[in-house]
Amino acid sequence: MIGDRAFWALVIVDIWAAWPFIYMMTIAGLQSIPNEMYEAADLDGTTWFQKIRFVALPQIRGQLLLGLLLSTLAHFNNFTLPYVLLGSPAPTPALTLPVNVYQTSFQVFRFGLGAAMAVISLILMIIPAVFYLRASKLTAAVGED
Question: For the chain, how big is the Rg over CA atoms in Å?
């Protein structure tokens, strides 16, 4: 019972910590949309929901995806938040990979297993990073043409 509460407490605090970054990315994307697009949508007789769906969201899709990717990368390896919030040893349902690596290495003294888990964590973080770098190269190449 306590573990379930610990997991949801961790999720809520992590979302609360990530919210300002996502909000800033969204506001930056919304401010980059020209007013003419909204005026053209008004002339077409769209509702506010249609403006959001067909004007705003397609324009800020890149910023939202970038914000989601960067916050996922930043929060995936977050050791501080679960360690400070839940202490050590953390409840099993709220045991994140960085805290698990720490506990395995420095409390159970299985350094080989902890190192292997850290390498797997690195590989898991490289995969989305490669996709991001390739996408940014494609965006830069298209922007040069």
Answer: 21
| Distance in angstroms (rounded) separating the CA atoms of residues 144 and 49 | 34
- State the CATH number of the domain containing residue 59: 1.10.3720.10
Q: Please report, for residues 96, 104, 115, the alpha-carbon distance to residue 109 in angstroms, rounded to integers and kept in the order given.
A: 18, 6, 11
Domain hosting 70: range is 2-144
pLDDT digits (tens, 9 = 90+) for 42-61: 999 999 999 999 999 999 98
pLDDT, one tens digit per residue, over 74-129 is: 888 888 888 888 887 888 888 888 999 999 999 999 999 999 999 999 999 898 88
Burial of 111 from C-beta contacts in 10 A (0-12 / 13-18 / 19+)? exposed
Q: How far apart are CA 79 and CA 59, in angstroms?
A: 34
Place of tokens 């929060």: 75
Instruction: State how many domains the chain has.
Output: 1
